[in-house]
Write a structure and sequence with these properties.
Length: about 170
Amino acid sequence: MPYQLKINGKTTTVDVPADMPLLWVLRDVLDLKGTKFGCGVAQCGACMVHVAGTATRSCILPVSAVGASPITTIEGLAPDASHPLQRAWQELDVSQCGYCQPGQLMSAAALLVRTPKPTDADIDAAMDGNICRCTTYLRIRQAIHHAAGNSAPAATPMPKGSKGVL
Ligand code: FES
Ligand code: FES
């Protein structure tokens, strides 16, 4: 069935089954491979995109549920990778293997729109659904502060029970 999607500012039509997850549409139909497949069951955040500005796991969102909501993927965050978060990621050398990082960036970008000056607690809460097997969590937090223009935050330990630290 045809669905008209607004992705990264462009309208495109895809002819796919109603229950196809948005992630499959992005990667396999539209060749937007920046959004990653991790777990497929809403547990890792690798597939995070923005749907109407909200960080959303595309692996569990059927294409039929998107409707007219605009979608932004990592490719659309900034056409030339100049988003303040992308610059901060580079300056602080956040990525290790890199696999989780598109999803991390999309969650962080949604956070800064609703909370331009986040605290450590804001960041930890917003990023809780994004897993990094390389445990880059502290650098991610520092880079979000950097992008937000926050003065150097105290090195607060990651919360007890969190996913790990370097
Ligand atoms: S692939 Fe969607 S949350 Fe893991
Ligand atoms: S940088 Fe390797 S999984 Fe996050």
